[in-house]
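Notebook, p. 212. Picked up where the previous page left off. The plan for this session was modest: take the two constructs that came back from the sequencing core last week, fold each one, and keep the raw output in the notebook itself so nobody has to go hunting through shared drives later. Recording the first one now, exactly as returned: residue sequence, then the structure token string.
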Amino acid sequence: MLSKSQARAFFFGGTGVFAIAFLALTYDSMRQLPNQTKAHNITDAVKRGKHIWESNNCMGCHTLFGEGAYYAPELTKVVDRRGKDWMKVFLKDPQAMFPGQRKMVQYHFQPPQIDDVIAFLEWCGQVDLNGFPAKPPLAQKLQATTPTAPGTLLPKPVPAIFTTAACIGCHSIAGEGGAAGALIGAPPLDEVSKRRTREETTAWIRDPQKSKPDTKMPDLVPSVVSEAQLTEIVNYLYSATPKP
């Protein structure tokens, strides 16, 4: 059994050791903080985006770094999951992307504000959080609920813009994609060449509302899809080969 003096020495000695360890770990954490948070990537656009995030109380619905409300999706890695082009379309008009589903407020952000918000969220996604959050199985969510039918056309390599502009989120092709479009009747694109001419398809993508005023398809050209990318998409849709 310890004497009073021994107990006192043990208490103060142990407290001192753990205090030193705590201070050393704190110093080490602070030393690594700039690198882990990618502080050198904090641009003026990131700062403006953070201001927009806070002034509109985005954390009232979303979580960021695991903090906030749990009503809407976690956004720490949203740029990795969705891509900048998709986010531009969504932030411009949340309801147009998921009509009848999303309850997100239409903030009427201007293009520069949207770019700033995306810059802020992109920086958030670069912060080293030791694997948090885990990547969601987004690819599985975009899979069609039915297998590819016999005779379905198998597309050639998919243009990047076809994925980043969320085309495959609404439309299915070769049995993949179309998760969101199933709710609004977005048609599959396997045999679009049999239904429309190349010129009609180009005109539709360039200005969907002009072709069909009540369509749910958002206006992507030129805000998200350039004329060159529009041509790339059309070439892709008309270059499918029969499935072997």
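Okay, moving on. Second construct, recorded in the same format:
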Amino acid sequence: MNGRDAGSHSGEAHVGGTGARLNWLRAGVLGANDGIVSTSSLVIGVAASGVGNDALLTAGLAGLTAGALSMGVGEYVSVSTQRDTERALVQKEKYELEHFPNEELDELTSLYEARGLSPDLARQVAVQLTERDAFAAHAEVELGFGEEDFTNPWHAAWASIASFVLGAFLPLITVLFLPADTRIIVTVVAAATALAITGTVSARLGGARVRPALVRNVLGGLTAMAITYGIGTLVGTRIG
């Protein structure tokens, strides 16, 4: 049991503030990753059907625009929901502090005991912090965030849109400006390299092991590209 769990009200969620501060960066990495995978898969599938550059450009730009807007809207909705939850937790905590001050003081004491303080010292710390700023004391130990740490849905949305566009430009430019006999394989290599980079960055942001995340990211992207290439080849053969 950790300090956030001990002494908390039944069913009360606790959210860390570190993830909120890194939210826009997470959205950026995920947006770039999706831009690489979806656009690479799209243009490789279309190129495999044997169409010309005009059709490739049209399909690529359409996919880039739709994907970027979809990512932006999705991030905005998701982060807005998270922010609403954070606000609800803050309001709930303020209500409890106003109407149940003694119970909240006992709760804060138990949280500090769970962190290793003796009962007497935990009580002294809880009392002093409560007298200074009761909400700030509970926000730090119990919730893990304060009102200044609320996530910003616009930051996440714009970071996601911009990074998706940047990620999508790589395969789109590669497939358009290379000879027909090499553009697919070079696009695959470029996309796999970019996916290795985004996989590494996302793993480091989350404190996870780099190698599994990198392999998972690259293999997932290669699988998507292989499937769309097969579909494009089949469609091109049937149409031809």
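Notes on construct two before I forget. The first helix runs from residue 17 to 21.
Flagging for discussion at group meeting.
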